[in-house]
Write a structure and sequence with these properties.
elongated; mainly alpha; single chain
Length: 131
């Protein structure tokens, strides 16, 4: 089971990385430029740390499902990921919006993007982690 957890976690990490590139690197590119004073300059970004955080998050998501959800199915994987994703997305997107002067459209994009990433993770988990 350990190999399955690690492999699934890596696949989730790769999917999240690709989706983050589209969301943050393409769709929100102008919004980040308009709020540039809030962010580190590109050459000071801690991209390695962001990757480690995403990998640990993906592995943790998969580990908890694999070891604590007794009835493994696509439906349960999606429910699990969407419930956890809802909590994480609200916390990240709207928690940040509450304390940072970012446009509401950015917070909404963060929320919807995060929720979508968790839904994709749930689908991957449902496909890869079975009884």
């Amino acid at each position: 089971m350990a190999k399955k957890i690690v492999l699934t976690g890596v696949v989730v990490f790769i999917a999240w990385s690709a989706m983050d590139y589209v969301l943050h690197g393409m769709l929100l590119q102008n919004a980040y430029k308009e709020t540039a004073a809030l962010w580190r300059p590109m050459d000071e970004m801690k991209n390695g740390l962001l990757s480690i955080v995403a990998l640990i998050s993906a592995l943790t998501l998969v580990y908890v499902y694999a070891t604590m959800v007794s009835q493994k199915s696509m439906a349960n994987a999606l429910k699990y990921s969407l419930i956890l994703g809802l909590g994480m997305a609200v916390s990240f997107a709207y928690g940040s919006y509450a304390v940072m002067p970012v446009p509401y459209s950015m917070a909404l994009s963060w929320f919807l993007g995060s929720l979508t990433e968790f839904a994709v993770a749930g689908a991957i988990i449902g496909l890869m982690v079975k009884e």
